[in-house]
Amino acid sequence: MTPDPDPSSRVVAGVPETYELAEPNLARPPSRTPVVRESMAGRILTASAYFAALAFHVMTILGSLGGWQGLNSNAPILKDDHPLYLHSAVVTRSFLAQSGTTAGYDPTFMAGYPKSAVFPASSTLPEMVMAAFGGWVAPAVVYKWYVFLAATFAPVLILWAASGLARSRIAGALAAVVWMLYIWSDFPIQYVGFGMVPYFLAIPLALATLRVCVAWLENGGTARWLGMTFLLAATTLTHFTALMVLVPAAVGAWLFAPRKFRNALSGLVSGAAAAGVNAFWWWPGVVLAGTKGESGFAFSHPEGVIKRLGQIFWTEAPAEALLILGFCAGLPLMHKQARVAAAGLTGFAAAGFFWGYGAGAFRSLDFLQPGRHTYAAYSACAVISAYAIVAVVSMLRRKSLSAAIGACAGLLGLAVRLFGPGLVAVYSMWTTPGTAPLDSKPPAAYELIRNTLKGRVGPADRILYEEGGFGPDFFRGGRYSGVLARDLGVEFLGGPYLHAALTTNVAQFGEGKLAGRENWDATWLETVRKRYGLTWIVCWSDKARAVLDTDPDRYETILRDGPLRIARLKGANAQESPVSPTLPLAGGDFVEGPVVAKPGQIVIPVRPSSGTAVDREVILRYHWAPNLKISSPEGIEVLQENGQSLPDTAFPPLIRLRLKPSVQGPVELRIGFGA
After folding, report:
1. HSE of 126 in the Cβ direction (CA atoms, 13 Å)?
2. pTM of the entire structure?
3. Which residue, among 168, 172, 231, 205, has the nearest Cα to 383 in the 3D structure?
4. Please, are residues 182 and 382 in contact by the beta-carbon 8 Å criterion?
5. For residues 226 and 245, what is the distance between their CA atoms, to the nearest angstrom?
6. Which of 23, 110, 228, 486 has the lowest CB atom count within 10 Å?
């Protein structure tokens, strides 16, 4: 299809000046991006649709947060992964101050674990926000504003990215509308509800990076290269898995760009610079790579690839099939007018489809949770589909204005019929208290647990907490431990997430298991209690209640409310030595005063030597981690607990200190990341 001659083209001072009509110009563009003049009617129509869709998007997110009052309240979001990311953001402020990295030793959960990019793997963005604002605004308020702004900024990024890639503001606004219809009628908006806000934002940010990358490949320029590098660094920081689709997209665009060798070298330098800027969070993850353990594969798909592809046109949301059809129709048209951008979007979509669907044939890739990248594929399809719609309507407009108006009216009616009922239902679900994913009004169960334990527990306690997970869940998706620990000022065994990808994750309580055992009993509970210094238990499952109810002398129940139990763990007899995380498991005679653990460090007050010239050993009730270093004094070795002394091989090793006779005073332990 050849466009009509452009009557607005003219020559000013010997330089050709070109203006495009409302429809995309399907001829191959010159080396410099032309100035675009689009019809006012088209811009008003698409802008109106964009702002209507954006208003729905913003008001639904705000309504889920409880409106402005809920957004600014001190009550935290308690569902799914939100408490985990809030806790991670709060403790990381200490790590940034101590080492300039987002990693460090966190004693709050799992009897101590090395927090890094290994786990949680996608928390850097909220951590940076909390570091910037958490010192003078309540952490829960900072976190909710981060969720709100990140979720509502995503459609703005799509608008900007699509406008540049399609070289049309009309196509860009329409792409953003199509994208919002897709995310609200299909799964992607659930990423915000689950707490995976960084990934939700990272895909639009990756498309924005691709826009600047395409502009740089076509026209060069230091400013464009710097802009591309900045956006690449921002995308990597927000969620590094976005590189799984952004890199293939950049390679696809590069294959159709001029000056391939020079661009390849400059592109590699850009990537290296972006990686260097982000080293403060990913390098500690490399150092602590050995701490990675098993994790649940929530976004992998065990069904066959063919079956999963067939579901697109049979059982999945209609938006998916429509976007694929739009991609097939729009790609040939866009390739004629913007080859580099079309190639980049094709790489983006193809990579997303491979990870989202094709990777299901390779079970070894499950650890990457590749199923989530269907979101990336359909986001790229939204841009090309919008381009196709604009091209078709423009073609009809040249032949008959009434035909173009009729096509627009038909598309509007189809969109209302396909998406209207679903959008009304999802708006109701997202904004109704109780079902709203971002609701921060504390549930009754949370208030009951908090009020029962408040004033009864302190820093010398460690609570065995039965966290909710897959299967039966008393808390119905609420994960209170990530908030309760900070609120009560106490350590937990259990939480903040039952499937933390860490070797220390054995020290959990939930989904029927206690410290790795499914068939546990009172004897195993006693073993775990002594090892980890447990003083309280919060539980709700049938098995846990049965254990507590059979021996009221050993378990002093403070609260019985339905299935919920809160009890004090008293031990087998009154004569036994007290247990606490502040008291060593072994070598307590060499320590005077409590062991003090806080985010980033553990301090052990070593008693002066009695005069004997022998080494002393102390075993703490905190898990050993790689790269644990002594900040003061000298004459100390940090070792793993002797495996033969473990009561069960499922337990990760605890920290063992070998102290020279000369050592006395406070000993400080931290995870180091230097040479």
Report:
1. 32
2. 0.90
3. 172
4. yes
5. 21
6. 486
Residue 36: which residues within 8 A CB-CB, separation 6 or more? 19, 20, 167, 168, 169
Which pLDDT score, from 0 to 100, does residue 610 have?
A: 77
Strand order in the sheet with 491-493: 491-493, 462-465, 536-539, 564-569, 555-561
Residue 574 has a pLDDT of 61
Task: Tell me the two tokens of residue 485.
Answer: 């620990």
Name the residue among 657, 591, 661 with its Cα closest to residue 629: 657
- DSSP code for 642: P
Quote the CA–CA distance of 345 and 524 in Å, as a whole number. 56
Asked if residue 524 lies in contact with residue 517, where contact means CB atoms within 8 angstroms, the answer is yes
Euclidean distance between CA atoms 89 and 305, whole angstroms: 37
Cβ atoms of 524 and 452 within 8 Å: the answer is: no
Across the range 365-378, mean pLDDT stands at 89
**Confidence (pLDDT) at 3:** 41
- Tell me, what amino acid is at 196? M
CA-closest candidate to residue 650, choices 522, 507, 530? 507
* Cα separation, 67 vs 436, whole angstroms: 12
Q: Per residue in 121-131, is it b (16+ CB within 10 Å) or e — as a string?
A: bbbbbbbbbbb
Q: For 588-609, what is each residue's pLDDT tens digit?
A: 899 999 999 999 999 999 998 8
Structure tokens at 97: 């101050």
Query: Residue 369 — φ and ψ, nearest 5°?
Result: 50, 60
Specify the pLDDT at position 487: 94
Which pair of structure tokens corresponds to residue 337?
């007018």
CA distance 55 to 80: 26
Q: pLDDT category, 153, cuts 50, 70, 90?
A: very high
Q: CA–CA separation, 391 vs 26, rounded Å?
A: 9
Predicted local confidence at residue 646, as pLDDT: 53
| pLDDT-wise least confident of 24-38, 417-431, 496-510 | 24-38
Give me 334's structure tokens. Answer: 């866009």
> Partners of 617 in the beta sheet?
658
pLDDT number for residue 26: 45
Which H/E stretch holds residue 636? Answer: strand 636-640
Q: Residue 7's pLDDT band (boundaries 50, 70, 90)?
A: very low
